[in-house]
Design a protein that fits this description.
With 79 residues, this protein is an all-alpha fold. It has three helices and no strands. The protein is elongated.
Amino acid sequence: MKVDKTKILEIVGKNLNLGGLFADVLDEVLEPVLRDFVEDSANPYDDMLLAAAYPILERELKAKVEEAVNKLFAIEAAE
């Protein structure tokens, strides 16, 4: 019996929200760790850097992950 790789990828893509998983890890794990890190530091510049850079990094990382996941399933599904 041959396994239909395309069908399996459809099922995985439909049921596994990799973009959402990554977004939650950023929001619930990475961001609080970074905030704790800069809060414990006496350096005011790291607070400013986090406030200025994190929203941009978060947006870009989420977009890149979504793009990579979409590309993965599109490439794999096309094979």
